[in-house]
Design the sequence.
Protein backbone atom coordinates (compact mmCIF):
# COMPACT_ATOMS: atom_id res chain seq x y z
CA UNK A 1 0.00 0.00 0.00
CA UNK A 2 1.14 3.53 -0.73
CA UNK A 3 1.26 5.96 2.12
CA UNK A 4 -1.62 8.42 2.28
CA UNK A 5 -1.26 11.99 3.62
CA UNK A 6 1.45 12.27 6.22
CA UNK A 7 2.76 15.12 8.32
CA UNK A 8 5.92 17.05 7.58
CA UNK A 9 7.46 19.42 10.10
CA UNK A 10 8.67 22.73 8.72
CA UNK A 11 12.38 23.38 9.06
CA UNK A 12 12.37 26.65 7.11
CA UNK A 13 9.88 28.55 4.97
CA UNK A 14 11.67 31.52 3.45
CA UNK A 15 10.73 34.16 0.90
CA UNK A 16 13.74 34.04 -1.43
CA UNK A 17 12.32 36.54 -3.93
CA UNK A 18 9.05 38.54 -3.91
CA UNK A 19 6.22 35.98 -3.68
CA UNK A 20 8.63 33.05 -4.15
CA UNK A 21 9.14 30.78 -1.15
CA UNK A 22 11.50 27.96 -0.33
CA UNK A 23 9.93 25.44 2.01
CA UNK A 24 12.07 22.79 3.73
CA UNK A 25 10.44 19.96 5.66
CA UNK A 26 12.04 17.43 7.94
CA UNK A 27 11.36 13.76 7.38
CA UNK A 28 12.20 10.75 5.32
CA UNK A 29 10.64 11.78 2.02
CA UNK A 30 11.51 10.32 -1.33
CA UNK A 31 10.84 10.97 -5.00
CA UNK A 32 12.46 11.54 -8.38
CA UNK A 33 13.17 14.87 -10.07
CA UNK A 34 10.01 16.14 -11.75
CA UNK A 35 7.68 14.32 -9.38
CA UNK A 36 5.43 16.33 -7.07
CA UNK A 37 3.59 16.21 -3.78
CA UNK A 38 0.11 17.39 -2.88
CA UNK A 39 0.46 19.84 0.02
CA UNK A 40 -2.17 20.85 2.53
CA UNK A 41 -1.11 23.48 5.04
CA UNK A 42 -4.38 23.81 6.92
CA UNK A 43 -6.77 21.63 8.91
CA UNK A 44 -9.94 23.37 7.76
CA UNK A 45 -12.10 22.38 4.79
CA UNK A 46 -11.44 25.68 3.14
CA UNK A 47 -9.41 25.84 0.93
CA UNK A 48 -10.91 22.53 -0.06
CA UNK A 49 -8.19 21.06 -2.27
CA UNK A 50 -4.51 20.38 -1.59
CA UNK A 51 -1.90 22.09 -3.80
CA UNK A 52 0.41 20.24 -6.22
CA UNK A 53 4.02 21.39 -5.71
CA UNK A 54 7.03 19.81 -7.42
CA UNK A 55 10.03 18.50 -5.52
CA UNK A 56 12.86 21.06 -5.52
CA UNK A 57 15.35 18.84 -3.69
CA UNK A 58 15.66 15.90 -1.34
CA UNK A 59 18.76 15.66 0.79
CA UNK A 60 19.76 14.17 4.14
CA UNK A 61 16.38 13.79 5.81
CA UNK A 62 14.85 16.92 4.31
CA UNK A 63 12.65 17.72 1.35
CA UNK A 64 12.59 21.11 -0.32
CA UNK A 65 9.78 22.76 -2.28
CA UNK A 66 9.94 26.00 -4.20
CA UNK A 67 6.56 27.67 -4.71
CA UNK A 68 5.01 30.88 -5.87
CA UNK A 69 2.17 32.46 -3.90
CA UNK A 70 -0.66 32.47 -6.42
CA UNK A 71 -3.87 32.02 -4.46
CA UNK A 72 -5.26 31.35 -1.01
CA UNK A 73 -3.68 27.91 -0.60
CA UNK A 74 -0.12 28.99 -1.30
CA UNK A 75 -0.72 32.17 0.70
CA UNK A 76 -1.63 30.10 3.77
CA UNK A 77 1.39 27.85 3.26
CA UNK A 78 3.63 30.92 2.99
CA UNK A 79 2.58 32.04 6.48
CA UNK A 80 3.61 28.79 8.15
CA UNK A 81 6.69 28.92 10.37
CA UNK A 82 9.41 26.60 11.61
CA UNK A 83 7.90 23.85 13.72
CA UNK A 84 4.47 24.05 12.07
CA UNK A 85 3.39 20.98 10.18
CA UNK A 86 1.59 20.37 6.94
CA UNK A 87 0.15 17.29 5.25
CA UNK A 88 1.73 15.77 2.17
CA UNK A 89 0.78 13.08 -0.32
CA UNK A 90 3.41 11.77 -2.68
CA UNK A 91 5.63 11.44 -4.53
CA UNK A 92 3.24 11.60 -7.49
CA UNK A 93 3.62 11.60 -11.26
CA UNK A 94 6.32 10.23 -13.52
CA UNK A 95 9.27 12.66 -13.27
CA UNK A 96 12.22 13.25 -15.60
CA UNK A 97 14.42 10.43 -16.85
CA UNK A 98 17.87 11.00 -15.32
CA UNK A 99 19.59 8.04 -17.00
CA UNK A 100 20.49 10.11 -20.03
CA UNK A 101 23.78 11.17 -21.55
CA UNK A 102 25.21 13.97 -23.64
CA UNK A 103 24.71 17.69 -23.53
CA UNK A 104 21.48 18.65 -21.82
CA UNK A 105 19.64 21.99 -21.72
CA UNK A 106 17.28 22.82 -18.87
CA UNK A 107 14.89 25.61 -19.86
CA UNK A 108 12.78 27.30 -17.27
CA UNK A 109 10.30 30.14 -17.06
CA UNK A 110 9.47 31.69 -13.68
CA UNK A 111 8.61 29.18 -10.99
CA UNK A 112 9.27 26.44 -13.59
CA UNK A 113 12.78 26.47 -12.18
CA UNK A 114 11.47 24.53 -9.16
CA UNK A 115 12.34 20.95 -10.23
CA UNK A 116 15.69 21.82 -11.81
CA UNK A 117 18.02 21.73 -8.81
CA UNK A 118 17.14 18.13 -7.96
CA UNK A 119 17.26 17.26 -11.66
CA UNK A 120 20.64 18.90 -12.27
CA UNK A 121 22.09 17.10 -9.25
CA UNK A 122 21.12 13.73 -10.67
CA UNK A 123 22.07 14.26 -14.32
CA UNK A 124 25.51 13.00 -15.28
CA UNK A 125 25.88 14.73 -18.67
CA UNK A 126 26.97 18.29 -19.40
CA UNK A 127 24.09 20.44 -18.20
CA UNK A 128 23.35 24.04 -19.22
CA UNK A 129 20.46 25.93 -17.69
CA UNK A 130 18.48 28.71 -19.36
CA UNK A 131 16.21 30.50 -16.92
CA UNK A 132 13.77 33.26 -17.69
CA UNK A 133 12.08 35.47 -15.10
CA UNK A 134 9.76 38.45 -15.17
CA UNK A 135 11.84 40.72 -12.88
CA UNK A 136 14.10 38.97 -10.41
CA UNK A 137 16.21 35.87 -10.87
CA UNK A 138 16.09 33.34 -8.02
CA UNK A 139 17.20 29.85 -6.99
CA UNK A 140 20.02 29.80 -9.58
CA UNK A 141 22.74 30.20 -6.95
CA UNK A 142 21.77 26.79 -5.61
CA UNK A 143 21.75 25.20 -9.06
CA UNK A 144 25.01 26.76 -10.25
CA UNK A 145 27.35 24.14 -8.68
CA UNK A 146 25.66 21.35 -10.64
CA UNK A 147 25.66 22.87 -14.14
CA UNK A 148 28.26 23.89 -16.68
CA UNK A 149 26.61 27.18 -17.64
CA UNK A 150 23.86 29.46 -16.38
CA UNK A 151 21.99 31.71 -18.81
CA UNK A 152 19.49 34.25 -17.53
CA UNK A 153 16.85 36.37 -19.18
CA UNK A 154 14.47 38.83 -17.56
CA UNK A 155 11.57 40.61 -19.20
CA UNK A 156 12.62 43.95 -17.71
CA UNK A 157 16.32 43.39 -18.32
CA UNK A 158 17.25 43.78 -14.65
CA UNK A 159 19.36 40.62 -14.78
CA UNK A 160 20.91 38.96 -17.81
CA UNK A 161 19.41 39.20 -21.27
CA UNK A 162 16.44 41.54 -21.67
CA UNK A 163 13.72 39.46 -23.23
CA UNK A 164 12.79 35.80 -23.27
CA UNK A 165 15.00 32.90 -22.35
CA UNK A 166 14.22 31.28 -25.67
CA UNK A 167 16.18 34.10 -27.35
CA UNK A 168 19.35 32.66 -25.82
CA UNK A 169 18.94 29.03 -26.59
CA UNK A 170 19.80 27.07 -29.74
CA UNK A 171 18.55 23.46 -29.76
CA UNK A 172 21.32 22.49 -32.20
CA UNK A 173 23.81 22.82 -29.35
CA UNK A 174 22.15 20.05 -27.30
CA UNK A 175 21.35 16.35 -27.35
CA UNK A 176 18.36 16.67 -25.05
CA UNK A 177 16.14 19.43 -23.66
CA UNK A 178 14.09 19.45 -20.44
CA UNK A 179 11.71 22.38 -19.99
CA UNK A 180 9.34 23.62 -17.31
CA UNK A 181 7.44 26.90 -17.33
CA UNK A 182 4.42 28.73 -18.74
CA UNK A 183 2.57 27.12 -21.66
CA UNK A 184 3.57 29.78 -24.27
CA UNK A 185 7.24 29.19 -23.39
CA UNK A 186 6.85 25.41 -23.58
CA UNK A 187 5.09 25.74 -26.91
CA UNK A 188 7.92 27.84 -28.28
CA UNK A 189 10.57 25.42 -26.97
CA UNK A 190 8.73 22.44 -28.48
CA UNK A 191 8.54 24.20 -31.85
CA UNK A 192 12.19 25.26 -31.75
CA UNK A 193 13.32 21.71 -31.00
CA UNK A 194 11.10 20.05 -33.58
CA UNK A 195 13.17 17.73 -35.76
CA UNK A 196 16.39 18.87 -34.07
CA UNK A 197 16.57 17.82 -30.44
CA UNK A 198 14.32 15.62 -28.28
CA UNK A 199 12.48 17.74 -25.73
CA UNK A 200 10.53 16.78 -22.62
CA UNK A 201 8.24 19.28 -20.92
CA UNK A 202 6.82 19.33 -17.42
CA UNK A 203 3.17 20.41 -17.57
CA UNK A 204 0.93 21.83 -14.87
CA UNK A 205 -2.80 22.13 -14.50
CA UNK A 206 -5.51 22.60 -11.91
CA UNK A 207 -5.70 19.36 -9.92
CA UNK A 208 -8.14 17.90 -7.46
CA UNK A 209 -7.09 14.39 -6.43
CA UNK A 210 -3.48 14.26 -7.72
CA UNK A 211 -3.65 10.48 -8.05
CA UNK A 212 -5.33 10.03 -11.41
CA UNK A 213 -8.95 9.53 -10.45
CA UNK A 214 -10.80 12.78 -11.09
CA UNK A 215 -9.57 13.46 -14.65
CA UNK A 216 -9.51 17.16 -13.82
CA UNK A 217 -5.92 17.80 -14.91
CA UNK A 218 -5.91 16.11 -18.29
CA UNK A 219 -4.24 17.64 -21.33
CA UNK A 220 -4.56 16.86 -25.01
CA UNK A 221 -1.85 14.55 -26.35
CA UNK A 222 -1.48 12.69 -29.62
CA UNK A 223 -2.83 9.63 -27.80
CA UNK A 224 -5.90 11.46 -26.49
CA UNK A 225 -6.53 13.08 -23.13
CA UNK A 226 -3.86 12.21 -20.56
CA UNK A 227 -3.56 13.03 -16.88
CA UNK A 228 -0.86 15.51 -15.87
CA UNK A 229 -0.78 13.89 -12.41
CA UNK A 230 -0.38 10.31 -13.62
CA UNK A 231 0.95 9.98 -17.20
CA UNK A 232 2.77 13.30 -16.55
CA UNK A 233 3.70 15.83 -15.45
CA UNK A 234 6.63 15.16 -17.82
CA UNK A 235 5.58 14.58 -21.42
CA UNK A 236 7.54 14.18 -24.62
CA UNK A 237 7.22 17.57 -26.36
CA UNK A 238 6.07 16.24 -29.71
CA UNK A 239 3.26 14.31 -28.00
CA UNK A 240 1.64 17.33 -26.39
CA UNK A 241 -1.10 19.06 -28.38
CA UNK A 242 -1.11 22.67 -27.23
CA UNK A 243 -2.74 24.79 -29.90
CA UNK A 244 -6.25 23.52 -30.46
CA UNK B 1 -22.65 -4.15 12.51
CA UNK B 2 -22.48 -1.58 9.70
CA UNK B 3 -24.04 -3.88 7.08
CA UNK B 4 -26.85 -2.50 4.99
CA UNK B 5 -29.15 -4.12 2.47
CA UNK B 6 -30.04 -2.44 -0.79
CA UNK B 7 -32.64 -4.32 -2.84
CA UNK B 8 -31.40 -7.67 -1.58
CA UNK B 9 -27.72 -6.88 -2.11
CA UNK B 10 -25.69 -6.78 1.08
CA UNK B 11 -23.17 -3.94 1.48
CA UNK B 12 -20.50 -4.35 4.19
CA UNK B 13 -21.15 -0.80 5.22
CA UNK B 14 -23.15 2.17 3.92
CA UNK B 15 -20.17 3.94 2.33
CA UNK B 16 -20.09 4.00 -1.48
CA UNK B 17 -17.45 5.76 -3.57
CA UNK B 18 -19.29 8.25 -5.76
CA UNK B 19 -19.20 8.20 -9.52
CA UNK B 20 -16.63 10.44 -11.16
CA UNK B 21 -14.47 10.79 -8.08
CA UNK B 22 -13.08 7.29 -7.88
CA UNK B 23 -12.29 6.22 -11.45
CA UNK B 24 -12.76 2.46 -11.51
CA UNK B 25 -11.02 2.05 -8.17
CA UNK B 26 -7.50 1.28 -9.38
CA UNK B 27 -5.85 4.48 -8.17
CA UNK B 28 -7.41 4.19 -4.71
CA UNK B 29 -6.62 0.51 -4.35
CA UNK B 30 -2.98 1.61 -4.08
CA UNK B 31 -3.84 3.47 -0.86
CA UNK B 32 -6.33 1.13 0.83
CA UNK B 33 -8.05 -2.15 -0.06
CA UNK B 34 -11.13 -0.95 -1.92
CA UNK B 35 -12.87 -4.14 -0.83
CA UNK B 36 -13.44 -2.42 2.48
CA UNK B 37 -15.97 -0.11 0.83
CA UNK B 38 -19.67 -0.84 0.89
CA UNK B 39 -19.74 -0.35 -2.87
CA UNK B 40 -18.18 1.53 -5.75
CA UNK B 41 -20.03 3.59 -8.31
CA UNK B 42 -18.01 3.66 -11.52
CA UNK B 43 -16.90 6.70 -13.42
CA UNK B 44 -19.92 7.84 -15.46
CA UNK B 45 -20.18 5.66 -18.54
CA UNK B 46 -21.73 6.44 -21.89
CA UNK B 47 -22.43 3.97 -24.67
CA UNK B 48 -19.48 5.28 -26.67
CA UNK B 49 -16.07 6.40 -25.46
CA UNK B 50 -15.78 10.12 -24.71
CA UNK B 51 -12.72 12.37 -24.53
CA UNK B 52 -14.40 14.84 -22.18
CA UNK B 53 -14.40 18.62 -22.13
CA UNK B 54 -11.67 21.03 -23.14
CA UNK B 55 -10.37 23.94 -21.11
CA UNK B 56 -10.30 24.14 -17.34
CA UNK B 57 -12.02 21.16 -15.79
CA UNK B 58 -11.57 21.80 -12.07
CA UNK B 59 -12.05 25.04 -10.17
CA UNK B 60 -11.94 25.41 -6.41
CA UNK B 61 -14.69 27.31 -4.61
CA UNK B 62 -15.37 28.01 -0.93
CA UNK B 63 -15.52 24.60 0.78
CA UNK B 64 -15.99 22.81 -2.49
CA UNK B 65 -15.16 22.66 -6.14
CA UNK B 66 -16.70 22.99 -9.56
CA UNK B 67 -15.99 20.47 -12.27
CA UNK B 68 -16.60 20.19 -15.94
CA UNK B 69 -14.91 16.91 -16.81
CA UNK B 70 -17.47 16.12 -19.47
CA UNK B 71 -17.83 12.39 -18.89
CA UNK B 72 -14.41 11.36 -20.17
CA UNK B 73 -14.85 7.58 -20.15
CA UNK B 74 -13.91 4.46 -22.12
CA UNK B 75 -17.48 3.68 -23.18
CA UNK B 76 -19.53 0.76 -21.87
CA UNK B 77 -17.65 -1.82 -23.97
CA UNK B 78 -14.29 -0.42 -22.94
CA UNK B 79 -15.37 -0.57 -19.29
CA UNK B 80 -16.53 -4.17 -19.62
CA UNK B 81 -13.31 -5.25 -21.32
CA UNK B 82 -10.66 -3.25 -19.49
CA UNK B 83 -12.00 -2.09 -16.12
CA UNK B 84 -14.67 -4.49 -14.94
CA UNK B 85 -12.25 -7.46 -14.66
CA UNK B 86 -10.21 -5.47 -12.12
CA UNK B 87 -13.32 -4.79 -10.04
CA UNK B 88 -14.57 -8.37 -10.41
CA UNK B 89 -11.38 -9.57 -8.73
CA UNK B 90 -12.36 -7.53 -5.69
CA UNK B 91 -15.08 -8.52 -3.28
CA UNK B 92 -17.01 -5.29 -3.71
CA UNK B 93 -20.50 -4.31 -4.82
CA UNK B 94 -20.51 -2.43 -8.14
CA UNK B 95 -22.84 0.27 -9.39
CA UNK B 96 -22.32 0.95 -13.09
CA UNK B 97 -23.12 4.63 -13.57
CA UNK B 98 -24.64 5.16 -17.00
CA UNK B 99 -25.47 8.39 -18.82
CA UNK B 100 -26.84 9.03 -22.27
CA UNK B 101 -28.02 11.70 -24.69
CA UNK B 102 -30.87 9.70 -26.19
CA UNK B 103 -33.11 7.00 -24.77
CA UNK B 104 -31.68 4.55 -27.31
CA UNK B 105 -28.17 5.19 -26.01
CA UNK B 106 -29.28 4.43 -22.47
CA UNK B 107 -31.03 1.27 -23.59
CA UNK B 108 -28.08 -0.03 -25.60
CA UNK B 109 -25.80 0.64 -22.65
CA UNK B 110 -28.14 -1.20 -20.29
CA UNK B 111 -28.32 -4.19 -22.60
CA UNK B 112 -24.53 -4.47 -22.62
CA UNK B 113 -24.40 -4.17 -18.82
CA UNK B 114 -27.21 -6.73 -18.36
CA UNK B 115 -24.79 -9.51 -19.25
CA UNK B 116 -22.10 -8.54 -16.77
CA UNK B 117 -21.51 -9.12 -13.07
CA UNK B 118 -22.34 -5.56 -11.97
CA UNK B 119 -24.83 -5.35 -9.11
CA UNK B 120 -26.75 -2.18 -9.95
CA UNK B 121 -27.20 0.26 -12.78
CA UNK B 122 -27.08 3.82 -11.52
CA UNK B 123 -28.95 5.68 -14.20
CA UNK B 124 -27.40 9.12 -14.50
CA UNK B 125 -30.08 11.58 -15.55
CA UNK B 126 -28.19 14.38 -13.91
CA UNK B 127 -24.73 15.12 -15.35
CA UNK B 128 -24.80 18.87 -15.94
CA UNK B 129 -21.65 19.09 -18.01
CA UNK B 130 -22.52 17.52 -21.33
CA UNK B 131 -25.76 17.35 -23.20
CA UNK B 132 -25.01 13.65 -23.55
CA UNK B 133 -24.87 13.42 -19.76
CA UNK B 134 -28.56 13.18 -19.40
CA UNK B 135 -29.38 16.21 -17.27
CA UNK B 136 -31.91 17.14 -19.91
CA UNK B 137 -33.78 14.08 -18.63
CA UNK B 138 -33.41 15.08 -15.02
CA UNK B 139 -35.07 18.50 -14.95
CA UNK B 140 -38.65 17.79 -15.90
CA UNK B 141 -40.62 14.88 -14.45
CA UNK B 142 -42.21 13.96 -17.78
CA UNK B 143 -38.90 13.36 -19.55
CA UNK B 144 -37.42 11.57 -16.55
CA UNK B 145 -40.42 9.23 -16.43
CA UNK B 146 -39.93 8.41 -20.07
CA UNK B 147 -36.28 7.40 -19.81
CA UNK B 148 -36.74 5.55 -16.51
CA UNK B 149 -39.73 3.54 -17.72
CA UNK B 150 -37.93 2.54 -20.93
CA UNK B 151 -34.77 1.69 -18.99
CA UNK B 152 -36.75 -0.41 -16.54
CA UNK B 153 -38.22 -2.44 -19.40
CA UNK B 154 -34.81 -3.61 -20.63
CA UNK B 155 -32.76 -3.66 -17.43
CA UNK B 156 -32.11 -7.01 -15.79
CA UNK B 157 -30.23 -5.21 -13.03
CA UNK B 158 -31.79 -3.24 -10.20
CA UNK B 159 -32.14 0.33 -11.41
CA UNK B 160 -31.03 3.17 -9.17
CA UNK B 161 -31.81 6.57 -10.66
CA UNK B 162 -29.37 9.36 -9.82
CA UNK B 163 -31.26 12.60 -9.43
CA UNK B 164 -30.15 16.11 -10.20
CA UNK B 165 -30.63 18.83 -7.59
CA UNK B 166 -31.41 21.02 -10.58
CA UNK B 167 -34.74 19.23 -11.01
CA UNK B 168 -37.72 21.58 -10.97
CA UNK B 169 -39.09 19.92 -7.85
CA UNK B 170 -37.05 17.21 -6.19
CA UNK B 171 -39.98 15.48 -4.47
CA UNK B 172 -42.05 15.33 -7.63
CA UNK B 173 -39.02 14.16 -9.58
CA UNK B 174 -38.31 11.38 -7.09
CA UNK B 175 -41.92 10.28 -7.02
CA UNK B 176 -42.12 10.29 -10.83
CA UNK B 177 -39.00 8.17 -11.18
CA UNK B 178 -40.25 5.60 -8.69
CA UNK B 179 -43.65 5.49 -10.38
CA UNK B 180 -41.80 4.92 -13.67
CA UNK B 181 -40.00 1.91 -12.20
CA UNK B 182 -36.87 3.11 -10.36
CA UNK B 183 -35.88 0.48 -7.80
CA UNK B 184 -33.89 3.00 -5.83
CA UNK B 185 -32.73 6.61 -5.95
CA UNK B 186 -29.40 8.28 -5.41
CA UNK B 187 -29.22 12.02 -4.83
CA UNK B 188 -27.86 14.53 -5.42
CA UNK B 189 -25.58 15.03 -8.40
CA UNK B 190 -23.75 18.36 -8.68
CA UNK B 191 -25.46 21.74 -8.66
CA UNK B 192 -25.27 23.71 -11.88
CA UNK B 193 -23.07 26.71 -11.05
CA UNK B 194 -21.05 29.56 -12.53
CA UNK B 195 -17.61 31.07 -11.99
CA UNK B 196 -16.25 34.11 -13.84
CA UNK B 197 -12.64 35.04 -14.52
CA UNK B 198 -12.86 38.79 -13.97
CA UNK B 199 -9.53 39.53 -15.65
CA UNK B 200 -10.34 37.59 -18.80
CA UNK B 201 -13.92 38.88 -18.46
CA UNK B 202 -15.38 35.52 -19.36
CA UNK B 203 -16.60 32.34 -17.65
CA UNK B 204 -13.91 30.12 -16.12
CA UNK B 205 -15.38 27.09 -17.88
CA UNK B 206 -15.72 26.70 -21.65
CA UNK B 207 -19.23 25.32 -21.09
CA UNK B 208 -20.02 28.49 -19.09
CA UNK B 209 -21.57 26.55 -16.20
CA UNK B 210 -20.19 23.56 -14.30
CA UNK B 211 -21.15 21.22 -11.47
CA UNK B 212 -20.64 22.31 -7.87
CA UNK B 213 -19.88 19.72 -5.19
CA UNK B 214 -18.25 19.43 -1.79
CA UNK B 215 -19.15 20.36 1.78
CA UNK B 216 -20.71 23.64 0.59
CA UNK B 217 -23.68 21.74 -0.88
CA UNK B 218 -24.18 19.34 2.03
CA UNK B 219 -27.01 21.10 3.85
CA UNK B 220 -29.04 21.44 0.66
CA UNK B 221 -28.37 17.85 -0.39
CA UNK B 222 -29.35 16.68 3.08
CA UNK B 223 -32.62 18.61 2.91
CA UNK B 224 -33.38 17.04 -0.48
CA UNK B 225 -32.71 13.51 0.81
CA UNK B 226 -34.96 14.25 3.79
CA UNK B 227 -37.75 15.54 1.57
CA UNK B 228 -37.49 12.69 -0.91
CA UNK B 229 -37.52 10.09 1.86
CA UNK B 230 -40.97 11.37 2.84
CA UNK B 231 -42.50 10.65 -0.55
CA UNK B 232 -40.95 7.39 -1.77
CA UNK B 233 -40.62 3.89 -0.37
CA UNK B 234 -37.49 2.74 -2.20
CA UNK B 235 -33.91 2.74 -0.90
CA UNK B 236 -32.24 6.14 -1.08
CA UNK B 237 -28.52 6.69 -1.43
CA UNK B 238 -27.57 10.10 -0.08
CA UNK B 239 -24.87 12.13 -1.81
CA UNK B 240 -23.58 15.64 -1.34
CA UNK B 241 -20.52 16.94 0.44
CA UNK B 242 -20.04 13.99 2.80
CA UNK B 243 -16.53 14.10 4.18
CA UNK B 244 -16.95 12.79 7.73
CA UNK B 245 -18.76 10.03 9.58
CA UNK B 246 -20.99 12.67 11.15
CA UNK B 247 -22.12 13.80 7.70
CA UNK B 248 -22.88 10.18 6.79
CA UNK B 249 -24.93 9.63 9.94
CA UNK B 250 -26.90 12.81 9.22
CA UNK B 251 -27.85 11.51 5.78
CA UNK B 252 -28.89 8.16 7.26
CA UNK B 253 -31.02 9.90 9.88
CA UNK B 254 -32.56 11.93 7.05
CA UNK B 255 -33.62 8.68 5.41
CA UNK B 256 -30.71 7.36 3.35
CA UNK B 257 -29.93 3.62 3.35
CA UNK B 258 -26.39 4.28 2.20
CA UNK B 259 -24.32 7.30 1.20
CA UNK B 260 -21.78 8.16 -1.45
CA UNK B 261 -18.55 10.00 -0.81
CA UNK B 262 -17.41 12.09 -3.76
CA UNK B 263 -15.30 15.22 -3.54
CA UNK B 264 -14.04 14.06 -0.14
CA UNK B 265 -11.93 11.45 -1.94
CA UNK B 266 -9.86 14.32 -3.35
CA UNK B 267 -8.76 15.68 -0.01
CA UNK B 268 -7.60 12.31 1.34
CA UNK B 269 -7.53 9.12 -0.74
CA UNK B 270 -8.58 6.95 2.24
CA UNK B 271 -11.17 9.36 3.67
CA UNK B 272 -13.81 6.64 3.22
CA UNK B 273 -11.91 4.43 5.68
CA UNK B 274 -11.98 7.22 8.29
CA UNK B 275 -15.72 7.55 7.70
CA UNK B 276 -16.38 3.80 8.08
CA UNK B 277 -14.31 3.64 11.28
CA UNK B 278 -16.08 6.70 12.64
CA UNK B 279 -19.50 5.17 12.00
CA UNK B 280 -18.45 1.97 13.80
CA UNK B 281 -17.20 3.93 16.82
CA UNK B 282 -20.37 6.00 16.92
CA UNK B 283 -22.58 2.91 16.75
CA UNK B 284 -20.63 1.28 19.57
CA UNK B 285 -20.78 4.38 21.76
CA UNK B 286 -24.48 4.91 21.12
CA UNK B 287 -25.34 1.22 21.48
CA UNK B 288 -26.69 1.05 17.93
CA UNK B 289 -26.76 -2.53 16.62
CA UNK B 290 -28.01 -1.80 13.14
CA UNK B 291 -28.21 1.40 11.13
CA UNK B 292 -31.88 0.54 10.61
CA UNK B 293 -32.43 1.85 14.13
CA UNK B 294 -31.56 5.39 13.14
CA UNK B 295 -32.60 5.44 9.50
CA UNK B 296 -35.09 8.16 8.71
CA UNK B 297 -35.70 9.04 12.34
CA UNK B 298 -35.93 12.73 11.47
Sequence:
Amino acid sequence: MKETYRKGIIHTNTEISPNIYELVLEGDFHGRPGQFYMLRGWEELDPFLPRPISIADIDSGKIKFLYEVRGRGTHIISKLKKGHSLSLLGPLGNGFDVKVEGKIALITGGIGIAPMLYLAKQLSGEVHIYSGFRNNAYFLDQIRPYVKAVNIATENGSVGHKGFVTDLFDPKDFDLVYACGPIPMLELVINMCKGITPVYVSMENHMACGIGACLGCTIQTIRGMERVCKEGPVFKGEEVVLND
Amino acid sequence: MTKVDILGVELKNPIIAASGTFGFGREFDEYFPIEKLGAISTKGLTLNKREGNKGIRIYETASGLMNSIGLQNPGVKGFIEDDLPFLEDKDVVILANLGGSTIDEYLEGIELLNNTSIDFIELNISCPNVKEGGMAFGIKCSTAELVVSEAKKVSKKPLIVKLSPNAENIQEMAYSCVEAGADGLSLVNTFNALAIDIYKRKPVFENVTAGLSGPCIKPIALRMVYEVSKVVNVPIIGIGGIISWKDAIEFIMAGATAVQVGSGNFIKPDITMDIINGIEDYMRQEGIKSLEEIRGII
Notes: The longest strand of chain B covers residues 93-98.
